[in-house]
Amino acid sequence: MAEAFKQLLCFFLDGTDLHLTYFDHLAADPGYAATIETDLGDMVSSHQMKRFLNGFSFCRNFLFRRLLQDLFLWRLRAKKPDVVLLDLDTMVMDNDDARCREGVDPTYKDRNGFQPLQLKWGAYVVDAVFRRGKKHSNHGKTVVRMMSHMVERIRREYNPDVPIVLTVDAGFFDQENFRAFEKLGIGYVCGGKLYNDIKQRAEQIPEEDWQLLDKEDGRSYLCASFADQRGTWDKRRRVVFTRLTNKDHQGVFAFAQDRKVYYTNLGEDDTFTQKLTAGGKAGWLTTPGVVSLAHGRGRDELRHRALKEFGTEKLPFKRVEPNTAFYYTMVLAFNLLEAFKRDVTAEIISPDVYPTTFRRTFLDIAGKIVATSHQVILKVTRVVWERLNLQKIWGRANSPPVTPLA
After folding, report:
1. pLDDT tens for residues 280-334?
2. Domains contained in the chain, CATH given
3. Out of 63-67, 149-153, 211-215, which region has the weakest mean confidence (pLDDT)?
4. pTM, two decimal places
5. Cβ partners under 8 Å of residue 267, min gap 6
């Protein structure tokens, strides 16, 4: 089992062909076997890999989540951030042109597929729930349970006092979620719905109360805060209203200004405010700071693009259990690649490059494996040796961070 799991992780990292039949080609390649340090006779075939993945049950797949969380806590202890900024969103996996699959349903993007719920921290997928396509962002109690468990683990295994901030889109706009986040003692910024009464209140705000937010891409926003309480809510919450005034360094007419609204508890709790200030994030408490946090979700959503480019949206099995195991292994391999880019190759290749760029730059190089004097030697050209600084990378790859997994 360990050997099959290792070869599956390497299969995702290679990314040349993500059809399971590619294992038959790899099993006949002695060069590839030597590269991943596996005897040629131990290379798995496509049929063996199918039997391996078909052996995963729902309970066994659930343990993948614990593995992802342990990897996150390992990275958290290695980086030691003063504030933990998380993002929660769903990712649509397009299986529209595949044959009937268990769990494949119409999604909000008018495509048939799966729609896993993913919690992210920077480049890493912290936790994920693999779900069928028709389950929307806020389906059931999954969000509250996921966040309750993750907050408890962060405080128990990393730092009991570290401030945690969560960003989500309007799909999670629900007072039950806000109540749970406030009870957990974490901050949140959530996209809201632009009701008519919200628009009317924004129109009544004096011009001197609007604050300007200039973005590096040439966009400018006017933003203002006020309190709002929806009809069924039990308390008032802070609202930040924004309108786009400049785009590409050009003014936007009032009727064409894009308007957004965000709900947050930042700046509402004195204890949490003190923690954020001590963590060097006092700017997040301001009205422009809340808007910047909400806009920063665009970078987090690029993780979905990177994950799809690293792996595949089209899962190979008809049953949901092996597809779940395939998905979680893909996410685990993606996290390991992101950790490798930051620990080993960061000075040579930017950690922010997409998987395809990293593969073409670092993996797809000419080399030759030779055996002489009881040694196995990898020979590369001098240009590759100097461009990638392989001597330094080799030393780092053999000296991984000492921080243990949780």
Report:
1. 999 999 999 999 999 988 777 788 999 999 999 889 898 999 999 999 999 999 9
2. 2-56+316-397 (no CATH), 61-308 (3.90.350.10)
3. 211-215
4. 0.90
5. 238, 273, 285, 286
